[in-house]
Amino acid sequence: MAETLTIPIDQLQLGLYVHLDLKWFEHPFAFSHFKIKSQDQLDALHALGLSHIRYDPAQSDVAPAAVPAPPPVEKPAAPPAESPMLAAKRAMMERIRKQRQDAARIEQAFAKSGETIRAIERNLFSRPEETMRLAGQLVDQITDSFLAMPELAIHVMGE
For the chain, how many structural domains are there in total? Predict the structure, then answer.
């Protein structure tokens, strides 16, 4: 593995080959290591809020920039806008989380349905009126599940 060095984020510039020590969903880039080729990439790296970053001198076209002098104190700028790729990743993760919650809720409903069916079988002759009420509730619950989320209901039933 190539030897990497750690530099302050302020020394980044075009042509450096960087390594991000972040999980794939914590940054907007396709890979965790790459050569910086555009100002947009530089801006996105700065927006990550890192103080230091690793770079590979052997794969870089340039050396890190000299440490800049501290800028004059100004009023704080607005936070950088989230990149479209990072926003898309966050939206996808939120959809997956919601689907998992929905699937868990439907699985619980089907497990409860199984308990209700067993109760109906046990009490069919001893308590027919209560059994009919339970059967009606069960049909209503199953119908509601199919109408609310048919693709998840079918998936859960398949398992």
Answer: 2
